[in-house]
Amino acid sequence: MATRKKITRKKAARAAPASRALVLTEPSESALAQYSELFDPELTAGAAGGGGGLAPFIGTEDGIMRRGENVIGTELNAVVLGVSIDHALYPGRYQKGQPNNPICFYVGSDLEHAKPHASAPAPQHATCEGCLKDAFGSGQGNAKACRQSRRLLLLPWGDNVDPEADQLYRLRVPPTSIKHVSAYYEKLKSFKRPMQTVVTHIEIRGHETNRFEVVLTPIERIDGEVIVTLARRAQEGREALFSVPIADQGKKKGAAAAGKGAAPGRRKVVRRR
Description:
The strands form two sheets. Strands 1, 4, 5, 6, 7, 8 and 9 form a seven-stranded mixed beta sheet that branches. A two-stranded antiparallel sheet has the order 2-3. It has a domain at 19-88 and 149-258. It is an alpha+beta fold and 273 residues long. Strand 2 and strand 3 (70-73) form a beta hairpin. The protein has helices at residues 17-20, 29-38, 178-190, 226-236, 238-241, 247-258; strands spanning 57-58, 65-67, 70-73, 75-89, 104-108, 147-156, 169-173, 198-207, 211-221.
């Protein structure tokens, strides 16, 4: 059995997010073939529109990333191993500390053909498209009653990352930041580079009307044999990426997973020159 090795990098100087944006070049045809064989397109299809157990969620309440009681901050470097579409209609208003189960929901990768999950207790329409709860103004103010977000599967990345064993996490991107996920996806698509082969800088920025927005910026290429490991970890996290949003399930399994590994800290910025 191969020995697991920590991947270390020299410390990089901290820079403003804008100056860290990665300028990617097109890979060779052989590299493109390798990527297409390693990564399942379904894992990232959820970014395009508008088994390792459950990976715990990183919370973003008040514009600060947290894992339980551990504060991560407003910035995190990670490899985005997958993106799913997450629709959920809840019976009442959200109350802090009181998790609730949605009455209608969809988790998947096909926005065009999205429809209520078979286990949803009260489906509102045959498909998400055309549902009255999907209309602006059906919720509070001009918002939609159905909360539509994106779910990211993350492997935090830093100087001492162990891609073989480090904890995977999930991060829910709010409706007002879906446009940033789409822009990120299109940028990587133009470079012909899967998102699983770059280090992504995730930043929560304050916003005048939306309170905060989540912005994704690719900052470093990942090449070499580690890509095979990342492909395997992405498959391991599939269950968490597409799991149904049931509060009791997430609370029990998430707590168990949290006890197995420490929360990601403020990771060092990693760049390859």
